């Protein structure tokens, strides 16, 4: 019986180490991808197996990463697809930085995510339709970037979404008004000159013969 218990204990320990290593590798990939003038990521040491000891990282009782708080951190550089490996992550807070490049489609793998706050960066490209798989998402704030393209219609499937802000970008096409998006006001979409919506919402209609890339 004691031998069986030891085997189970070693197996559980192995699972924990594997999860910690995968999550540590994912976070360290972010550190390598960004410039950090104030050294806020200095504690992110890849030789430490458990990333729960790193500053700005919060973990649950099983030592799985649940929160990443890096707002106002003066970071520049790019987000990395490896962030999609943080399966227990609930809060991804990277607002008010100078991050560039696209939002990785792999963020759609963050099934536990409640809040995605990437506002006031310099992100470009389209909003990934893969974000529609984030069924627990309540807060989606992408405002104040340079995002282009259409708002994915798949996002209207986010039934738990309470706050949406995609204002101050360069989005185009029409505004989704079905599903969870039916409750959001014009402020959620403001200052996207190429975005068109119902006249009753006060939007200036964009010439539909023009391109929407």
Please characterize this protein's 3D structure.
By secondary structure, the chain is of the alpha/beta class. The chain has one domain: Leucine-rich repeat, LRR (right-handed beta-alpha superhelix) (Alpha-Beta Horseshoe). Helix content is 15%, strand content 21%. Strand 2 and strand 3 form a beta hairpin. About 13% of the residues have low confidence. Keywords: Leucine-rich repeat, Repeat, Signal.
**Residue-averaged pLDDT, rounded?**
87
CATH 4th-level superfamily: Ribonuclease Inhibitor
Supply the CATH architecture.
Alpha-Beta Horseshoe
**CATH-derived topology:** Leucine-rich repeat, LRR (right-handed beta-alpha superhelix)
Please tally the helical runs, counting DSSP H or I stretches of 4 or more residues.
1
Number of strands: 13
How does the major sheet shape up? 7 strands, mixed
Tell me the strand percentage band: 15-25%
Helix share bin: 10-25%
Query: What distance lies between the first and last C-alpha atoms, to the nearest angstrom?
Result: 64 Å
Basic shape: globular
Low-confidence stretches: 4-18, 199-210
Number of domains: 1
Cα-based radius of gyration, to the nearest Å: 20 Å
Strand order of the largest sheet: 1-4-6-8-10-12-13
- SSE topology string: HEEEEEEEEEEEEE
Q: Which CATH C-level class is it?
A: Alpha Beta
Domain Disease resistance R13L4/SHOC-2-like LRR: 68-167
Protein name: Leucine-rich repeat-containing N-terminal plant-type domain-containing protein
Organism: Trapa natans
Keywords: Leucine-rich repeat, Repeat, Signal
């Amino acid at each position: 019986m004691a031998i069986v218990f030891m085997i189970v204990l070693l197996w559980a320990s192995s699972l924990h180490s594997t999860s910690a290593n995968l999550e540590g590798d994912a976070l360290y990939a972010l550190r390598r991808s960004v410039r950090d003038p104030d050294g806020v990521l200095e504690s992110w040491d890849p030789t430490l197996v458990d990333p729960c000891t790193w500053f700005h990282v919060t973990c649950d009782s099983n030592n799985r990463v649940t929160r990443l708080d890096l707002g106002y951190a003066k970071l520049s550089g790019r987000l990395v697809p490896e962030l999609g490996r943080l399966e227990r992550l609930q809060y991804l807070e990277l607002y008010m930085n100078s991050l560039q490049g696209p939002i990785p489609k792999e963020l759609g793998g963050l099934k536990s995510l409640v809040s995605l706050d990437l506002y006031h960066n310099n992100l470009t490209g389209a909003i990934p339709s893969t974000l529609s798989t984030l069924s627990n998402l309540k807060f989606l704030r992408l405002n104040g970037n340079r995002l282009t393209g259409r708002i994915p219609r798949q996002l209207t499937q986010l039934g738990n979404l309470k706050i949406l802000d995609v204002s101050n970008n360069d989005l185009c096409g029409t505004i989704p008004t079905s599903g969870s998006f039916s409750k959001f006001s014009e402020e959620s979409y403001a200052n996207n000159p190429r975005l068109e919506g119902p006249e009753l919402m006060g939007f200036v209609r964009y010439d539909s013969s023009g391109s929407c890339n």
